[in-house]
Design brief:
Shape: elongated
Radius of gyration: 21 Å
Oligomer: single chain
Number of strands: 2
Structural class: mainly alpha
Distance between the termini: 18 Å
Strand order of the largest sheet: 1-2
Order of helices and strands: EHHHHHHHE
Strand content: under 5%
Length: about 260
């Protein structure tokens, strides 16, 4: 897998007496957010629980996040982005109670570097009744990604479209303060970077799935591999043709951030 590409920015509970203490300690040390059956605890869910994604995206390349409140569509886009930027198999069953929700580093400063073999090794090493169940799990993971991506793409396209209108309107706003302009530009940068973050993660997922499929094919050939291959190709196409291209900034020149 190639190195991370640089972003192009848009400017412009059980026995409570026994379990209570370990759980409290876990909360204190790890910020536990896990619920039963892998669901995030309801008391952890807030309207802006994914707001950090924008701040992480901009902060990863040395920019400040916008102080503006999120619009409904911007909030929805961040909510939809999280399961797409979360690594595959990030919520194994043994982690489901003690908290699996945590912020994720943006790809532009993510350490350790992305390992495209990690997903496949886990898939192969996990106990399965048959090799067919491994193929089925792989296929289901790819399908889940494709299913999640469609509404994200629709919402993100709308957000970026509105950002273009926001950008165009800046010169017509009376008494626009420098801080207001900075926050508007920062929000457009956030939104653009989140889309690019999702795109990079889709490419990484597709690469991981491809590596896993190739290993399954040589370990246990099966006709179902063709179905997996077709789905992975579709995911690769979605990642490469996300259809959400970063727009020129307010001054008319795209900015490429390196490092």
């Amino acid at each position: 897998m190639s190195a991370v590409s640089h972003p192009v920015l848009i400017r412009g509970g059980a026995a409570r007496a026994v379990l209570l203490m370990p759980i409290l300690v876990t909360f204190a040390l790890g910020g536990c957010a896990g619920g039963d059956f892998g669901r995030t605890r309801r008391d952890f869910v807030t309207d802006d629980m994914h707001r950090w994604i924008g701040a992480e995206a901009t902060g990863s390349i040395g920019l400040k996040a916008s102080a503006f409140q999120l619009t409904d569509q911007e909030r929805t886009m961040r909510d939809m982005a999280y399961p797409l930027i979360e690594p595959p198999h990030a919520r194994p069953a043994w982690k489901s109670v003690f908290g699996d929700y945590q912020p994720i580093a943006a790809p532009w400063r993510q350490q350790p570097p992305f390992d495209r073999t990690a997903y496949g090794k886990l898939l192969i090493d996990e106990p399965h009744r048959s090799h067919a169940s491994r193929y089925n799990e792989l296929i289901q993971d790819v399908r889940n990604d494709l299913t999640m991506f469609e509404p994200f793409q629709f919402t993100a396209a709308r957000v970026l479209e509105l950002d273009q209108k926001r950008n165009a309107s800046l010169k017509y706003i009376s008494d626009l303060s420098p801080r207001e302009r900075e926050d508007a530009v920062a929000r457009m940068e956030e939104n653009s970077l989140i889309v690019q973050w999702v795109q990079q993660c889709l490419r990484r997922r597709a690469s991981s799935y491809r590596w896993a499929l190739e290993r399954l094919v040589i370990m246990a050939p099966d006709g179902i591999a063709a179905d997996a291959d077709r789905l992975i190709a579709e995911l690769e196409a979605q990642a490469n043709n996300i259809g959400l291209v970063a727009r020129p900034p307010a001054q008319g020149a795209a900015v490429v951030r390196k490092g």
